[in-house]
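Below is how a single chain appears once it has passed through the pipeline. First comes the sequence as given, then the structure the pipeline wrote out for it. We keep one example in the README because the format questions we get most often are answered faster by looking than by reading.
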Amino acid sequence: MAGDWQATVDDHRASVLEFLAAARAVDEECWARPSAPGKWSPGQVAEHLRVTYEVLLRELRGGSGMRIRLPWWRRAVLRATVLPRIVARGRFPAGAPAVREIRPGDGPFDRAATLSGLETLAAALGEQLEARPGASLSHAFFGKMTAPVGLRVLAAHNRHHAAQLPPAGRGLTRA
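Resulting structure:
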């Protein structure tokens, strides 16, 4: 289990670094421009991840986390069907809605400050979970998740959003 835990921690850390590299490579003129009508800009995507870590870290420190929005039986269905696929495949489902607590505002979001904040909060969350691997994280649709499952979901979430960012010199891509 210790090896699996360390591999999970390392993979989560790598996913954060992958997102940061992809976000830093986005052309400046694309940073605040939505990829399509009704979609987020790369800056909003980065802010979404930053706020996600802020909410989860606040919960670990004893404050309010993500509000659970589904009854127990619907969470049980999602935990039995969707969650194992995320954990096993490392892929986050397309079109999953962002709940209010982790939606970004309209922006604009300063790239350096947003990415620095994301990096700091992700590292702090990782440190908290490494110190307390028995801790749990709340998810709006899955309910309470163990630290290893929560880190795997976060890694998949980070990679899901990194893939949405336009590559350097390429303008905007899919949402």
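Strands lie at 136-139, 143-146.

See the next section for the split statistics.
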